Automatic annotation (TrEMBL):
Source organism phylogeny: Archaea, Methanobacteriati, Methanobacteriota, Stenosarchaea group, Halobacteria
Location within or outside the cell: Cytoplasm
GO terms under cellular component: cytosol
Protein source organism: Haladaptatus paucihalophilus DX253
EC number: 5.1.1.7
Keyword annotations: Amino-acid biosynthesis, Cytoplasm, Isomerase, Lysine biosynthesis
Cited function: Catalyzes the stereoinversion of LL-2,6-diaminopimelate (L,L-DAP) to meso-diaminopimelate (meso-DAP), a precursor of L-lysine.
SUPFAM superfamilies (UniProt xref): Diaminopimelate epimerase-like
Family: Belongs to the diaminopimelate epimerase family.
Name of this protein: Diaminopimelate epimerase
GO molecular function: diaminopimelate epimerase activity
Amino acid sequence: MNLSFEKYHGTGNDFVIVNPDACVPHRSRFARRVCDRTDGIGADGVLFLALEPEFRPPRVIMTLVQPDGSTAEMCGNGARCAAVWAAERANADEVMIDTLAGTRHAKIHDGGATIEMGAPEFGPNDVPVAGDEPLIETRVGDYDVTAVNTGVPHAVAFVDDVTAVNLERDAPPIRHADVFPEGANVTFASPCDGGFDQRTFERGVEGETQSCGTGAVAIAAAARRLGLTDGENVSVSPPGGDLEVTVDDRNATLTGPVEREFGGDLRVSNAGRLDLEA
């Protein structure tokens, strides 16, 4: 199998982009191979994008397959990368992105994109969590967490210093806790000058990522719910860069930079070997 690809990242959250016109019959297996950072290209996911430029604004259908082979409903940084990719091809400054979490509007600006993220949901059926009440500042594992769905479920824990958290040890018990029947991303946040620092252990990646857009929105939404911020504009700083979030009861937006890293051709042998020509 031969196909062309491109590599993009949003604040360090990196993705291999493949046009679904290419024949990839086993997307889960393909993503596991391609995302491998030792034997593959290395990425936090594969974005299969189908552009429909005849619409105004243009539309792009986005499917994100993660390194473990699962499909994610939504990815904020992935959607921003998809928006820039689509806008460049359609010669547009805004696009509509169809995701499994719904259709999202994105605006392109110099160096990046702003995307609508929908309304954060705290309801037990929306996250989802086990039980009849929202999970707000509730002990799970070794932390008090607040559960919110920002396209995917997040367990948000506010701590004094995110750099002091042993993420690989402390996040998995929360990610797999019985209270989260579909699992959850685990996001830690600590206050910093003008906003919050962020670290996220992502479901599907099963490890820490340099940035997580849905996690940044989850921090802003949880902070607003808990009274930790009194404004609608929140700055969030994951390890890979800075993101800006606006959030109210009806909608949230995510703004940040997007960069194209490189492109190339990929040959996948029947034995599963990847031959890359970048």
